[in-house]
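Morning!

This is the sequence you dropped in the shared folder:
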Amino acid sequence: MAKPSNNGSTFSVIGSDVTITGNISASADLHVDGRIEGDISCTSLVQGEGSEILGAISAESARLSGRVVGSTTARDLVVLKTAHVEGDVNYDALTIEQGAAVEGRFAPKKAPAAPVAATQKSAAKPPKDDGEEPHLTLAR
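The structure's back. Tokens below.
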């Protein structure tokens, strides 16, 4: 069921009596109170306390308060005290309430750094005989 929100966009609600098996892709905001067995991709996700998501989450913003088993990637992520997350978490901004349970690794969403071995190999090369001094660039 899609309803208009205050800013003119829509949001969809998956009720507590609904179980969906399969991936969900939504251009609207999504509110999940039921059980999802599949990956979710949406603009904004709000998860109800009694809901379960068994799959990966990808969203601009996510507010988790139920059970999630799978990786979560969100620009703005809020993990409420009633949430239980089992999986890796990637974020730009992260808020975790005291009491939330997360079993996985946390990593900010950034471009992957160059491997250290590759950087060391570049530095170990002998200088070219073109008159320029060698330059070392470290990845951040």
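Headline: The chain is about 5% helix and 50% strand.

More detail when I'm at my desk.
O.
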